[in-house]
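User: I'm writing a tutorial on reading structure tokens. Could you give me a worked example: one chain, its sequence, then its tokens, then a sentence or two explaining what the tokens reveal?
Assistant: Sure. Here is the example chain.
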Amino acid sequence: MGRRIVVEQAIAALFGNGLTDSMRRNAEREAEKLASLVGSYGLGAAARMAREIASIMSGGLGSARMQSSRLLELLTALRRELDRIPESDAQEDPKAAAHVLIVDHTTGFTEAASIEAVKLGMNAEIAFDINSAKGYIATQATNLVLLDLYFPDGRERSLEFIREVARTHPRIPVIALSASDNFDDRLQVARAGGRGFLRKTRPVRELMQLALHRWQQLRQETQMSALLASADRDLKARILTAFEPAGLHVHVDEDPQSIWNTLSLSNPDLLLIDAGLDNPGVLDLCRLIRNESRWSTIPILVVGASDAQSTNALLASGVDDCMPREIDGAQMVERVRSRMKRIQLYRSFGQVDALTGTSSIQQSTQLMNQLLRLSERQRQPFCLLVTALDQIEIIRKTEGPNAADVVQHRLAQLLVGFFRNEDVVARWEGDNFVVALFGIDRDRAVARATQLLHKITQNPFPEPEWASLPVTLSAGLAQYPVDGETIETLHEAAATAYQIARDHGGNRALRAGEVPTPSALLERVNVVVVDDNAESIGPVVEAMQEDKLTVRWLRTGADAIRTLTGSSRNVGTSLVLLAAELPDMDGFLVFRQLLREVVVRNVIILADQPSQDQVLAALQLGALDYISRPFDIPALLERVHNALDAE
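And here are its predicted structure tokens:
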């Protein structure tokens, strides 16, 4: 990692009496960034070391010289932590998009698939034959391969390629594509080591969405980790020696009293506890963990239970498995792997949302119905809240889908911590979260939601750097039985209120049926056109109006920003046709402002003679299309109607 090198050079210069104040400040900044990066991957111990280095460096040259021995000790320990990370993981950034290689001999499909991949925030490359694909994988960063199963020279050639990639690059999943859907194809792909099978007869966009979703699932599987609570050096060495070659990430905490902080920092999937722990002992520690709602379901394995009586007591306290201290390393790995696979299976069965850790739709619906029935029996109020980040689509488009996943995960943690233990928090419908509030009426729920909106604006996601982007929430609330008598009807009412809040600028909470204040009401039109070229765009505007579409035509970028954004905003729309070049500014400046304020989701760029780089830049920002002059009016109208219908 480049950041580690900067820190190492500064500490080396300190011991050689060559550390300058500029080098110290640079090392402080890079250590903070390094802490943020490794912390986002759950490497809690490494993050704490990097932050302590940054803290010492922040005290000036005198502080660094006085604590030079501690700096060297921290750097040595930090090197050990980071050196255990596979190189590909160490270089990976949480906002990095999927680097997909599309291996297919048909030009039409590869071009369409690569365009859709870019729209989804992926980096796409094309190989028209298997030899080219092999060369690309050997020399370029690749973390997903989409492979046509039937090249002209037969299926076996593709299957051999899958076997080779599984053997030589096991971290690169290969998803097979086929126009047919027969059992033997699926079986042979699975036997060869393929990680997925998709039918090419699907619409290309849907196919690429499924491929991205599958890649995200596989990526999560490789990021599972365990936390070892032990001060026994021999046990730590045995576990690390056995686990690391098997690809299992292990974080270590030697102090049981700091377990809460370490759990929060590392967010492990499984907990290994040394039976010899003291103050608190292993039995008390397990009880404490099981009493904490957030960690009540984490698998706990104890190493070193000495007799049947202590083993029974541990199992009664909530421990999932006990292993003798002398257990063979390979056996321990298999038992831990078995537990981790069970976690994945548990999540796949729908009890827990794999991305956020909150209840799934199925599980949360069951819990919410139980609360609703309890509300009826006890004559207590019951509210349902629907909420989402206003900027989540912007983060997905500008920072990549993985960055959006990180933010969604952290938002889920914030929501769980913000609401009461008896409330139910779940992720529904993609980016939306639903919260069931028992014993709270709509007015109190709105007040609580307003507090949440204020908390979100206080930069709740300070790490990594891109997460400092300003974010806001919109929320809608519905109360039983006024707004609905079932979870489904309450959700529909709350979701409608949420959408109204979002459509009127976001960063607000509305009750079901509530109308925003008149000053917040907007003139709604189907299409806003921002283009000063009357000769080419005028006929398009007339054609849209003849098709019964409402249109607002603006000639300058300043007019567009004034009309569509900020406190002067007075028009709302579902679609903007935006010229790439305007008389007063670059059209892309307007586009970025629209994205920043989340005032419109669909933008089509209009240009004279766009270059390929301009087209790709527009699509990467999230444009629906890039259309060049002179316009084919019927085709453009069809594109407009398709965009409006999708909205």
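What the tokens reveal: The mean pLDDT is 81. The domain at 522-646 is CATH 3.40.50.2300 (Rossmann fold).
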